[in-house]
């Protein structure tokens, strides 16, 4: 089981935030740019202000975790990035042609095999049977599900279903890969607490697998969670949102090298403390 946790330190200045880490140091383009983004549901006295003044840039190939308490607007922000909803203020710019979504539930088609589920976005994009079958096999192999393509979802464990869901999301984001001239081969993967419903051991395994897949594909990932430990393990950058209306409170940079358990613990405690402050101030 992969256990490649990275050493964590808190950023000291803007240069460290934007240039010190691998993804931000080697990729010059932005996959996601948000400027002054707000989202309000409804009108008048009953209106709910979900997001306010969000400024956020995610570099091409970066792994960012959005962290916050329940109801702070994390999922709403993902919906804006996916184009499932429109902002009521500010601008949302997404560089990927086809951002894809992965949810807490696998949401697989129960009547389709694992391979056919992975092929589905490729089929909807108009790719031929042979090409999409090859790509589905590649992606199932990438998530370590060789030999299960013919099985249907009810024949798979919860963790295996989430791996199929991940392979399908990658197919949606990257098309046929480097050989598909119409695709954004780096892709943008939006993940809304995809491991929250799994048991602790399976969740730990899939977190390690996600890191491996991300490093192998260079896919840009925006990952929503309320679990500080999960955010610390996975992210290159952790972005803390305030309680409603959600806005960026603070960001933490995670360097690419090192394995300092003490610094990991310190950062975990720091983020947890700030999250508790956010929750307490909202409750008051």
From TrEMBL:
Give GO terms: molecular function aspect only.
ATP binding; ATP hydrolysis activity
Q: Superkingdom of this entry's organism?
A: Bacteria
Q: What is its EC number?
A: 3.6.3.-
Q: Which residues form the ABC transporter domain?
A: 32-268
Q: Which CDD domains match?
A: ABC_NrtD_SsuB_transporters
Q: Which Pfam families match?
A: ABC_tran
Q: Which InterPro entries match?
A: AAA+_ATPase, ABC_transporter-like_ATP-bd, ABC_transporter-like_CS, ABC_transporter_ATP-bind, P-loop_NTPase
Q: Which SMART domains match?
A: AAA (SM00382)
- Keywords, in A-Z order: ATP-binding, Hydrolase, Nucleotide-binding, Transport
Which residue spans adopt a coiled-coil conformation according to this UniProt entry? none
Query: What is the protein name given in its UniProt record?
Result: Bicarbonate transport ATP-binding protein CmpD
Species this chain originates from = Pseudonocardia autotrophica (Amycolata autotrophica)
Upper lineage is: Bacteria, Bacillati, Actinomycetota, Actinomycetes, Pseudonocardiales
């Amino acid at each position: 089981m992969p256990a490649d946790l990275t050493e964590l330190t808190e950023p000291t200045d803007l240069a460290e935030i934007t240039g010190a880490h691998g993804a931000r140091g080697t990729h010059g383009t932005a996959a996601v740019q948000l400027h002054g983004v707000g989202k309000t549901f409804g009108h008048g006295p009953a209106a709910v202000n979900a997001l306010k003044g969000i400024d956020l840039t995610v570099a091409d190939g970066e792994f960012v975790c959005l962290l916050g308490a329940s109801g702070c607007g994390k999922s709403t922000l993902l919906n804006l990035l996916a184009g499932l909803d429109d902002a009521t203020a500010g601008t949302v710019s997404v560089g990927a042609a086809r951002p894809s979504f992965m949810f807490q539930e696998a949401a697989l088609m129960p009547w389709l095999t694992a391979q056919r589920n992975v092929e589905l976005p490729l089929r909807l994009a108009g790719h031929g049977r042979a090409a999409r079958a090859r790509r589905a096999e590649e992606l199932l192999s990438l998530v370590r599900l060789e030999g299960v393509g013919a099985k249907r979802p009810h024949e798979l464990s919860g963790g295996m279903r989430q791996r199929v869901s991940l392979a399908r999301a990658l197919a949606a984001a990257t098309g046929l890969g480097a050989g598909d001239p119409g695709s954004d081969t780096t892709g943008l993967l939006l993940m809304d607490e995809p491991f929250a419903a799994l048991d602790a051991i399976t969740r730990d395994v899939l977190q390690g697998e996600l890191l491996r897949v991300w490093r192998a594909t260079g896919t840009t990932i925006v990952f929503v969670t309320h679990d500080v430990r999960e955010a610390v393990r996975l992210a290159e950058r952790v972005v803390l949102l305030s309680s409603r209306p959600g806005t960026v409170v603070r960001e933490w940079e995670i360097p690419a090298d090192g394995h300092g358990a003490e610094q990991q613990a310190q950062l975990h405690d720091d983020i947890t403390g700030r999250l508790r402050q956010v929750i307490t101030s909202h409750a008051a």
